[in-house]
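[job 4471] stage=fold_predict status=RUNNING
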Amino acid sequence: MRLGVCSACLPELTPHQAAEAAAAAGYAGIEWWVSAETGSPGPAHFLRNNRCTVRPERDAVRRARELCDRAGLAVIGLSGYVQAGDLRGVEHLMGLAAEAGAPRVRLWAPPATDGGFHEALALSVAFFGEVAELAGRFGVRALLEMHQRTICPSAALAKQVVGHLPADLVGVIYDPGNTVVEGSEDPRLAVQILGEHLAHVHLKNAAYERPRDGGPWRHRWSAMDDGVLDIPAILRLLEDTGYRGWVSAEDFSTVRTPLETLAYNAAYLRAHVTFEQTGARP
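[job 4471] inference complete, writing structure tokens
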């Protein structure tokens, strides 16, 4: 397996700083967050004012690739927020990925809405069928991320959408951290369900806590070694089942600074399984 990091987890760093820090910490690649909403003056945050963001422009993704090349890192892929059904948006993102030498792009299923599951499922199946054609044209694999509050929070639901498509064109991002919030399955079962469509793994952890003023328990993103998930067991499972792809740290916890978390997670994850050395290409 190869160890990478998602740039969205490094909101205080510029792409240049992120590439240098990731290489120094022992990662082999970066999964770049692509958005028109790049960082601006003011406090940095994971989901807004994130300075470690690449604009959806060819010059910007070329610079991101050059930063990785100089640091001896691979460009793992591009993570965009293209809405389901937006084929033009997918085509643009895949064009950028080809420009950056990125072999994959991340996509989502439609949001879950009351009474609209079957319609959204039909839309997703048709949409990813067309996405597969684009993937073949661009030579860029499309990955559906399992994500809470979409119609594909679990491996079983994601497989319903893409399981009939060629796995070399369309795969699934297994994100067990997201399934703590919604879509929980035993990791061994999830890996078996995905089969050859298991194309990428995001790792983070989560815990539940009761608000001080009462009310239902709610989740918070926790440190990689302090949450509901047994991360070392998941890594060993992936290794034992023959998975040899990328594992990207996508840690949104705030126990440490993002830069401290970057270094801590590299050491923690490498302590439990053997990853390929840095500098590996996708």
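[job 4471] summary: Residues 117-138 form the longest helix (22 residues).
[job 4471] exit 0
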